[in-house]
Amino acid sequence: MAITCASTAPSLPGPPIMRLVGAAGRCAGRLEIFHAGHWGTVCDDLWGLPDAAVVCRQLGCGAALDAPRAAFFGEGTGPIWLDDVRCQGNESSLLGCPASPWGVTNCQHREDATGAVLVLLVPYTFPPAVGVPARLSGSYSRCAGRLELLFEGMWGSVCAEGWGLAAARVLCHQLGCGRPRLVPAPCSPAAAGASPVVLRQVQCTGQEPTLEHCDLQPGQPSSCPMDRVAAVECEEPFQLRLVGGPGRCAGRLEVNRAGQWGTVCDDGWSRTNAVVVCRELGCGAAGKVSDLPRGRHRFGPGAGRIWLDDVRCRGQEATLRDCAHRTWGHHDCTHQEDVGVVCQVWDNPTCHHGTPEEAWQSTIKP
């Protein structure tokens, strides 16, 4: 094994074996590297988007969307192989980036508050269901993202100006998801690796079984910038939301079960739980009440059922429903104990979440 100084990159024959773990899909999660017969993590000291870009490219996962820190996907185990990685962003391999020597680090797995364990987010394309020539890309959910259709043998995008709520309903049903909650053209993840536009318009009545039965008009329109391709967010069987705050990413936590919204008791609630919630909502890392402007931190008690109590997440769960908790509806709480969550991305006035009709009216036009 070669020993290198801190000012040069580690040296091994061939590219390192890397993986992203702790999230849905192979293109999101905590970065781990296989070295000397063991999987280990990377400390996030000095880590940034240029480093993430190198990893994403090396893994064949497209452009880097974000490089959050502080054990965003939970703590790893084993050795911490790399520290102080400093890529320019154009390197073909992580080995081409300056870093401390292998295993030389001042980090510990438990130092989540200081970001000891590297985590990485990249846009991901979920494979289409069998026999369904449609997929959603650039998100962390199979029910949300940028729309891509297999048309005449090629995957391509659809111009947002030719995309409507009726078509979104058909797509969500086709993918086995719930009703369309958002059709976010201005908030579309299109910038990260959008496919060429192959359809200028999709016209549906809303009753078709699949998009194939809608009126598909091929060809690229004269003007359809890549930040205006169609995207959709469908409801999933398990839903959660933050209400009573300044935006969709801060507020009282509510979950939907059996068609009924209810709250979550704060017994045993931790920042680790909030990490899972913020990630599931696409709201970045977990923040704190002090991140909000003065006077915006009281979310008030909820009403109706208290669905969850004693929630205990490890941090790497893809959804809150995967965390340990009491039986649904069993608790010893009142609504005065309803938990609130603040994410670092606590407000986005451009991206409106409401009823499908409200969302459509607020997002389809510039």
Structure description:
With 366 residues, the protein is α+β, with helices and mostly antiparallel strands. The chain folds into 3 domains: 17-121, Roll (Mac-2 Binding Protein), CATH 3.10.250.10; 124-236, SRCR-like domain (Mac-2 Binding Protein, Roll), CATH 3.10.250.10; 239-342, Roll (Mac-2 Binding Protein), CATH 3.10.250.10. Helices cover 10% and strands 25% of the residues. It has 4 helices and 18 strands. It has helices spanning 49-58, 165-174, 271-280, 356-363; strands at residues 17-21, 28-35, 38-42, 80-82, 119-121, 124-125, 134-139, 144-151, 154-158, 180-182, 197-203, 215-218, 231-234, 239-247, 250-257, 260-264, 305-308, 340-342. Strands 6, 7, 8, 9, 10, 11, 12 and 13 form an 8-stranded mixed beta sheet that branches. Strands 1, 2, 3, 4 and 5 form a 5-stranded mixed beta sheet that branches. Strand 8 and strand 9 (154-158) form a beta hairpin. The longest helix is centred in the N-terminal third of the chain and has 10 residues, at 49-58.
